[in-house]
Amino acid sequence: MRTILLTGANGQVGWELQRALAPLGKVVALTRQQLDLGSPDAIRAALRQYRPDIIVNPAAYTAVDKAESEPDLAQAVNGTAPGILAEEARLSDALLVHYSTDYVFDGSKAVPYSEHDTPNPQSVYGKTKLAGEQAIQAVGGRHLILRTSWVYGVHGGNFVKTVLRLARERDSLRIVNDQFGAPTWARLLAQNTSNILQQLMMRPEDSKLGLYHLTAAGSTNWYDYAQEIVRLARLHDRVLRDKPLAIQGIPTREYPLPATRPANSVLSTEKIKDVFGLILPQWEEDLAECLQLLLSDPAS
Description:
This protein is α/β, with parallel strands linked by helices. It has a six-stranded parallel β-sheet with strand order 2-1-3-4-5-10, sandwiched between helices. A two-stranded parallel ribbon has the order 6-9. Strand 4, helix 4 and strand 5 form a beta-alpha-beta unit. It is globular, with a radius of gyration of 19 Å.
């Protein structure tokens, strides 16, 4: 039986991965408290203790704005730790699966970004995530890097839960309408990661390894995304069903934040669909399913 070491087990994606990876082998799911990615010694000790065949690393420093004032910590977790994971994986010929972000791009492109586009991150978060990608690639072992965007889920904090909370508390919301991306359910990431790993187990072709973009299909902006969250929530939530709520779209300049966000971070998923035959749903479909779970059973 294969041993799969999973980091960040209590995070949005890690929580879903625990379930999605279970049929593939013995999953050693480690939380941030059990494995501190800011400690190189802790990383090496854990990998040498469990000797996994597959390492899946969704853990990251994801506080985008806070990273501007904590660049060293963000670099340790996002930039340095992935390289150490890759070194240990190469020593034991393990496969490393690592998740990265749309924020490695500057957002100036008018069409979706492909894996061949040159990154140009504008924030500490984006720069450290790119450093993690580059550290893995420099090691040269067996790896998959999966860039994704705008992740949400039933577990952990995210934009969907924030909009639901504010919609219940306030009579009006002001949401940025000039940043575009693809909202991606953590469950989509987990299930498709499992699908990819199953394919690689059956036919272990190193030619299929490398860098891919993995998001839901379609795109939107934060304002329209919030509108859809509220519309769908009204179908299940009695508090919101008849509550008047005004949602106003505003430009980014009216909502300044410490970290610069890309105006366009839509990622092309043509490569991963072609290589692994994935069928990726429209973001609205996954959002509807997630909200139904979230509002009918918050512990889902």
